[in-house]
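User: structure tokens for this one?
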Amino acid sequence: MMIITNAIQTAKRTISVAVLMALFVIIIISGSLAGTDIIVNLTPPLTGYDSTELEIQVQDRSDLNGPLLANAFALANILGYPNGSATIGTFPHFEIGVSAGVGCTNMEYFDDTSDASNNGSFPMIIPNPVLHFGFGLIGGLDFIGKIFSFDSGMYTPSYENDLATPEDYSLYSVGGRVRYNILPRFTIVPALFSFGGVTIAAGGDAMIGKMKVHGEYETVYSNIEVTDGGTTYPLADVTFTGTYDAEISWKVISGTVTAIGYFEFLTIINLYTGFGITLGTGFFKADFNGTGLLTTADVGFGTDVGDLIFTSSNKYKAHPFIPTYILGAEVSLFFIKAHVETMVNLYTGKDVTALFGVRFEI
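Assistant:
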């Protein structure tokens, strides 16, 4: 009972991180509007503006970041099964615990020599905290499941500022895997090193959510042309400052198979490594409405360019195929086990996951 209570408390703390990350995502995309209707009411004496260039800039930003975000959701969806043992055992052996994982895409952003660090893209980090549980079946067969359900009616993080304020949200994650220990454990050096076995697994995952926020936002567009008295002038920079309302939603469903080998050191440290293949479908969708002021610091045009009103709807699909390399470690202290794990998307070679967990197993 204490473990379940601690799990709930941990989930409440973790949801704050999840909401803040989602808000960060919204701010990124709110400056990256694809499929957007833009109306600009120019300040006299200006009579025209280059709508094509403005729409191209916002379209390019969205198309660059949208797929990265959808793929981050797809990676986060398959997290939540931290287990450093090749098998739980036969029934009634069981395990229960909590884990906090993130799916990360575009990690090249942090490499100063990479184009991703200055091409307008951003690193995408999507959390997936879960309560997981498992139990032994028969003959090397076991099951591990995960679940996470949270909405604004259950708990609202104390987070509010001008940049983004959450109004409503719901987050759901569920999944399960059946594992089979095809190669049993055997000792190589007594009390020092053992081969833990090889286990294959198959299962499915789903992650669904939505969120509404409002806030203030500022971004800069470059090389926008305006018309004054029949003459066209280029503006080096035009700053948009305004307010917005946003609603985002996501849905990811996938099936995964894995094959993992386990190694035991000093009876308390377990390392494991292997490969997985995920097939699935998913999307990220964002709807925005906003209004604000366009201004410029270019000499000769004063300050105000005009008022801008926009509506936008974007939808991006995740890549359906994710081959992964898996590496993890677990430290056992009697019945309590602490866990870390990472996966690398072999399709891209630059998208990764990170997971931390604690579980109880008997």
